[in-house]
Amino acid sequence: MPVEIKIRKGEPMDKALRRLKKKLDREGIIRDVRAKRYFEKPCEVRRRKEKVSAFTNMLRQRYENM
Asked: Which among 19, 14, 11, 35 is positioned nearest to 3, based on CA atoms?
């Protein structure tokens, strides 16, 4: 599904671009494009996911103890 924004009447192009960038950021499209720019080995993917899950588990444990 393509991302669209409609330029409002009298809206400067800078504001329209800013709205487009925010929408792309919210939907995670820019993050996906940057991640898929280069090939990532399966072991690197697994290592990255394990690192993220370990960090979230650490945060979860830290805030459960408070």
From this structure: 19
